[in-house]
Amino acid sequence: MQGVYAIVNTTNGHMYVGSAMDIPARWKQHQRYLKKGKHPSKHMQRAWNKYGEMVFSFKVLEVVRRKENLIATEQRYLDQLKKQHNLSQVRFGQKTS
Question: Sheet of 56-63: strands edge to edge?
């Protein structure tokens, strides 16, 4: 399932918004990085370390049927939502050259 998702800190409402071609696999990837203390979003990593795994919820915001609409749909959510954990200029899961 491809689409846009949010990882929400339920104690303060802060969130990370992302998109993926395989949402369940991406959530597992986020969890691996967070549990190892190596998530690209330092803000989310600090919150995970402070509050613990149990306060984070994962939500699918929108299933996107057409791959070419994925990034534009993610951007729409980034523009609309409170997303304190999306501060990096590098998209999670992508390398810079």
Answer: 15-20, 3-9, 56-63
